[in-house]
Please model this.
Amino acid sequence: MSFDFDRLVVDDVSRNFGRRRALTRVSLTCVGGEIVGLLGPNGAGKSTLLAILSTLLAPSSGSVRYGTIDARTAGPALRSRLGLLGHDLYLYPELTARENLEFFARLYGLPGPRDRVTQALAHAGLAERADDVVSGFSRGMRQRLALERALLHAPRLLLLDEPFTGLDDASGQALVARLRGLRRDSAIVVVATHDLDLAEGLLDKVAVLRDGRLLPVSDSTASLRDRYRETILASASPAAVSPDAAPARRPS
Amino acid sequence: MRQFLRVAWVVMRKDLTVEMRSREIVYTTVFFAASCVLVFAFALVREGRPLEDAAAGILWISIAFAGTLGLGRTFERERHTETLRALMLAPSDRPAIYVGKLLGILALLAVVEAVLLPMIGVLFHAPVMASPGWLLALLFTGTVGFASVGTLFAAMLVRARSRDVLLPVLLYPITIPVIIAGVRGTAAILQSAPDEPMARFWAALLLFFDVVFVTLSLWTFEPLMTE
Model:
């Protein structure tokens, strides 16, 4: 069984780890064809939120809905529509690039895994290194391969945690182009990043997290970096919790 | 069901391929198990005469110790690369991942046992070829019982800080019935006149443990692995 969805709704989600609260009453809505940026300082709860969206972590309270389906009831059918590129790349260093992708293609039960993998390796610019073991790859090469791993099954929701880490300029731009392509295909992309320069102009919406809470982001025409700085500074004083994310693009 | 078996097969094949490349776990577990047998042989064989029934006990102790080492290392590998999370994201029933990991561990322990049996035969003068069918049946059922619980606990403890200590502390008390049944059944086979009815009784008991442990593990794997 598989299903489609064009809306992701995070409703009042909190998550505790023992006595520590990592997320506090976060609400967020993303729709198909939207690239949403999760911004915030280290330890703000971005990765926790991504783990919850990927169903790897269950919220302590609140709910996450994919279309009309609740994460708790969806199971494997939902996971076939999710792609996650975590901070750790989920690759086996002892296997070659091709073996890694083929393993995941078979795990996902994709038809014609060899052709898909060959195509993915070409996308990653790793066709010539396809039969080299991943432990010999640079961080950027691994990052590109891990992105292809996350995209191999054409997910409806793509979750990216620091996807620009280790990428050179050209690879960063290629990734931006790839994400724009996913937007055209009406996928939902959620990106947690510190790279505001690459994120500028890419994101349709931003959500700024600090200490596990969503902060209100101004709608001004300033650059993403300035608005982010402004939001973080404003959060030093007691601030209201934003009900949702703000538009990311400067009005033209 | 087909999808379940396909995922289990894919996971097992991946584990074996990774191990064939590094050979890290198979070398350490085999070396450790062989060292165990050697040390016990020096302690328990006097003037060429081993202690009565010692062979079965030494065999199972070595399997249990080496198995614990292998279980820990297998999951340490998944933890190091965080690939266990990627496995949990696969669109299949999560128990299929458990079965795949269990099959990989069983293959590893089969290699360990293939090395241990001739050593036990030579060092403890044990008639390992007297009733090979029953001996293999006992080894198989006992190993499945031990590894089924071990795989579940090793997966469960993969994020625990003191997992290396906790694994044996949790694993041995639960698998004691399996090890006792394995030792008694193997002792019945390795005596000078093999007692096959007794071996059959212990093998049946081990099979019962296998059914219980594997069923419980399949049932609890998903909730235990959801953070």
The interface with chain B takes residues 51, 54-58, 76-80, 82, 84, 86, 88-95, 99, 103-104, 106-109, 133, 149, 153 of chain A (CB under 8 Å). Chain A has a mean pLDDT of 83.
